[in-house]
UniProtKB/TrEMBL annotation:
<dbReference type="GO" id="GO:1990742">
    <property type="term" value="C:microvesicle"/>
</dbReference>
<dbReference type="Pfam" id="PF03129">
    <property type="entry name" value="HGTP_anticodon"/>
</dbReference>
<dbReference type="GO" id="GO:0070062">
    <property type="term" value="C:extracellular exosome"/>
</dbReference>
<dbReference type="GO" id="GO:0004081">
    <property type="term" value="F:bis(5'-nucleosyl)-tetraphosphatase (asymmetrical) activity"/>
</dbReference>
<dbReference type="GO" id="GO:0004820">
    <property type="term" value="F:glycine-tRNA ligase activity"/>
</dbReference>
<dbReference type="Pfam" id="PF00587">
    <property type="entry name" value="tRNA-synt_2b"/>
</dbReference>
<dbReference type="InterPro" id="IPR006195">
    <property type="entry name" value="aa-tRNA-synth_II"/>
</dbReference>
<feature type="binding site">
    <location>
        <begin position="267"/>
        <end position="271"/>
    </location>
    <ligand>
        <name>substrate</name>
    </ligand>
</feature>
<dbReference type="GO" id="GO:0005737">
    <property type="term" value="C:cytoplasm"/>
</dbReference>
<feature type="binding site">
    <location>
        <position position="220"/>
    </location>
    <ligand>
        <name>substrate</name>
    </ligand>
</feature>
<dbReference type="InterPro" id="IPR004154">
    <property type="entry name" value="Anticodon-bd"/>
</dbReference>
<dbReference type="InterPro" id="IPR033731">
    <property type="entry name" value="GlyRS-like_core"/>
</dbReference>
<feature type="binding site">
    <location>
        <begin position="334"/>
        <end position="335"/>
    </location>
    <ligand>
        <name>ATP</name>
    </ligand>
</feature>
<dbReference type="InterPro" id="IPR022961">
    <property type="entry name" value="Gly_tRNA_ligase_bac"/>
</dbReference>
<keyword id="KW-0648">Protein biosynthesis</keyword>
<keyword id="KW-0030">Aminoacyl-tRNA synthetase</keyword>
<feature type="binding site">
    <location>
        <begin position="378"/>
        <end position="381"/>
    </location>
    <ligand>
        <name>ATP</name>
    </ligand>
</feature>
Length: 515
């Protein structure tokens, strides 16, 4: 992150996003609306590039995966069948003094993270003490303090899992009391009882209010895929195993929506449901874990910023689940989920709809309800992951400073800026001629205002990977200078070679080839 050694905070990133047109608070002229944001000119470009990378990797690169775009509104029985009406709840607890509301499980997980931090501190101290001779595995297995911390974590996790699985809200509160967890705002330990809260937004369909017209804004995009399983399987002539991918908005009435765009009430998901033969789910679970982490690491955001986290508390539909976590400014948090959903969803929709949602297996000469393997990534969280890794404050050799977004070139909102060295002597005309050619292939920007150094800094701040400078030599030999964002190195290329040279550097194919 910050090359200067300073810690980059969420506040730094949010402030930069607003100043440079990536993300604005929604309805800001009316003082905003909590936990909702609008993507600005560069934000919407970056968001679309992330979508394109995911869609091409998931749909174009896999002949047995197709895409759909399902409606946000669905028949209300969909959510009864999926378990959302009865089971889509968060355990909430209020602090009586600060009047703040929290998810009980998140408070406990944050306490576990603090203990993990103590372990990391012990490991860091030992690493410095023993240097190259340090054996981390042996140290973790034998150091008395680390063993004590590890046992504490195991005990907390075991108690939390038991309480959540049993729906024992009293046990969850008792764990918070026993761990002496204080309100992060006031430091108070004056807690209410834990209560369940359903996260779905409801609204009315048609002009008559009442229970009969009650429908929900979808809390996930997966169910739109499940109810279309048969349509897609038949019309696309798909055989198991095959997948259905979708990018779309989802809505959750999060009581504690916070941490910028990390947790919002309106967000976008990129999901793929992979339909498989029962009994093969663990094989496919491992396959998609490997494929998805490869997709992330191809971006070059730092391998150390990713880790897998197995779920302690499995959802009602899953028999295996893990998260790919990313090291955001607020620590490691969930970025993508990979879940083995068994046949829960299709069986539930078959039961509630009375329609047969089965696959006829010619080899086995029998019909069965397929199992499902899910990959689900939050687009907004992916956006934040890219920005967190990219945001850099650098001190340069000449003593000056710059803020630069080191966004992977294939994802960058603007791929190239065309800059006449000075705004005279025929250079603007030549630069505009080049701009006309490059904008057919790339999202390009023309900038002739201010000194060239200032223009470079502007492009650095929005993450433009390459600047093409048109100077007096260009008029003589038809060559231009390409300046690279991260290293600030420059190379001279001829104008006829320019588009091919840039394409080689910024094409999304560079990412897809690594998968």
């Amino acid at each position: 992150m910050a090359n200067s050694g300073d810690t980059i905070t969420l506040k730094n990133i949010a402030s930069h996003c607003k100043e440079y047109g990536f993300i604005y608070p929604s309805s800001e002229i009316y003082d905003g609306l909590g936990a909702t944001y609008d993507y600005g000119p560069y934000g919407s470009e970056l968001k679309n590039n992330i979508k394109e990378y995911w869609w091409k990797a998931m749909v174009r690169m896999n002949e047995n995966i197709v895409g759909i775009d399902a409606a946000i509104f669905m028949h209300p029985t969909t959510w009864k069948a999926s378990g959302h009406v009865d089971a889509f709840n968060d355990p909430l607890i209020d602090n009586k003094d600060s009047k703040k509301r929290y998810r009980a499980d998140v408070l406990i997980e944050e306490q576990i993270a603090k203990i993990e931090g103590k372990i990391a501190k012990e490991v860091n101290k030992a690493t410095k003490r023993f240097g190259d001779a340090f054996d981390k595995d042996q140290f973790v297995a034998t150091n008395p303090r680390v063993i004590k911390y590890t046992e504490q974590i195991a005990d907390i996790e075991s108690r939390m899992k038991s309480a959540i699985e049993a729906g024992d809200l009293e046990a969850l509160k008792q764990l918070i009391v026993d761990l002496d967890i204080a309100d992060p705002v006031s430091g108070s330990r004056n807690w209410t009882d834990v209560r369940q809260f359903n996260l779905m937004f409801s609204t009315e369909l048609g002009s008559v209010a009442g229970e009969a017209g009650k429908i929900y804004l979808r809390p996930e995009t997966a169910q739109g895929i499940f109810v279309n399983y048969l349509n897609v399987q038949k019309t696309s002539r798909m055989r198991l195993p095959f997948g259905i991918a979708q990018i779309g908005k989802a809505f959750r009435n999060e009581i504690i929506a916070r941490q910028f765009i990390f947790r919002m009430r309106e967000f976008e998901q990129m999901e793929m449901q992979f339909f498989i033969k029962p009994g093969t789910e663990m094989e496919w679970y491992d396959h998609w874990k490997n494929q998805r982490i490869k997709w992330h690491k191809a971006l070059g955001l730092g391998e150390e910023n990713y880790r897998f986290h197995d779920h302690l508390n499995l959802a009602h539909y899953a028999n295996a689940a893990c998260d790919i976590e990313f090291n955001f400014p607020m620590g490691f948090k969930e970025l993508e989920g990979i879940h083995s959903r068994t046949d829960f969803d299709l069986s539930a929709h078959e039961k509630h709809s009375g329609k047969k949602l089965q696959f006829f297996d010619n080899e086995m000469n029998e019909s069965y309800v397929p199992y499902v393997l899910e990959t689900s990534i939050g687009l907004d969280r992916m956006f934040l992951a890219v920005m967190s890794a990219a945001y850099t404050e650098e001190k340069l050799e000449d003593g000056s400073e710059r803020t630069v977004l080191k966004i992977p070139p294939a994802l960058a909102p603007v791929k190239v800026a065309v800059l006449p060295l000075v705004n005279k002597d025929g250079l603007p005309e030549k630069a505009e001629e080049i701009m006309k050619a490059v904008k057919l292939d790339f999202n390009a920007q023309y900038d002739a205002k201010d000194a060239i150094g200032k223009r470079y800094r502007r492009q650095d701040a929005i993450g433009t990977p390459y600047c093409v400078t048109v100077d007096h030599q260009t008029l003589e030999d038809n060559t231009v200078t390409i300046r690279e964002r991260d290293s600030m190195a420059q190379q001279r290329v001829s104008v006829p070679e320019l588009i091919a040279t840039l394409d080689d550097k910024v094409n999304i194919k560079n990412l897809l080839k690594q998968l």
